[in-house]
Design goal:
Elements (H helix, E strand, L loop, with lengths): L23 H31 L2 H38 L7 E2 L2 E2 L2 H6 L6 H20 L3 H5 L5 H20 L6 H24 L10
Antiparallel strand pairs: 1-2
Length: 214
Amino acid sequence: MNDPNPYVAPSAARKASPKGVNFAFVTWVFLGVHIVRASMLGVTYACAPLATALNNPTVTAILTTAWNISSKGLMPMTFLTCVVVAIWVYRSWGALPHRARKVRGKELTPVSAYALLAIPIFNFYWMFAMNLALCDAYETMATGRVWQRDKSSGHGLVWSAGGLLLLGLVGQAAAQTPLSVLQLASIASPIFWFLFMRHIDGLRSEIPPSGDEA
């Protein structure tokens, strides 16, 4: 009688999507861009008070140069942030099966998921609706060790990030002091978005390939 080979490796119960392997790269780029932008913002706000307090021509010249570089770099970094977010949103929705790409029961394409964020006023609603729906889709489909170990939902991260973003916009429009609490909220908001993105990335790696990924 021929015994089965005891050294044959058992087949994997399930295989994570290949896209899940490098899915987190864009998320870490988002964090890096935010750190650079936040640093530029801090330099922009700090230069004038420091120049006044120190009252030294050499220091003032250095601070003026730093202010010029930082203030001119804010717009490109903001644009880069938008590009990174667009890539992440597109890939996140595109990695879902077509049947799961819905917001409030209506079908959604990966392109429209981000494009609707460009509509003024409506985007304040859409950033909540779209990300909450994305969170629900991934948390519903996710299986395996990660989701069994961590039952917390990403909804709280969405509400925190979106709320801080709105507070930051109010602060930038109405604040009388350079660094108000409301303006600092705009710096804290991307940190919560980053945590949410990491949450989705983790769930993404636990979802087997569906066969209809975009």
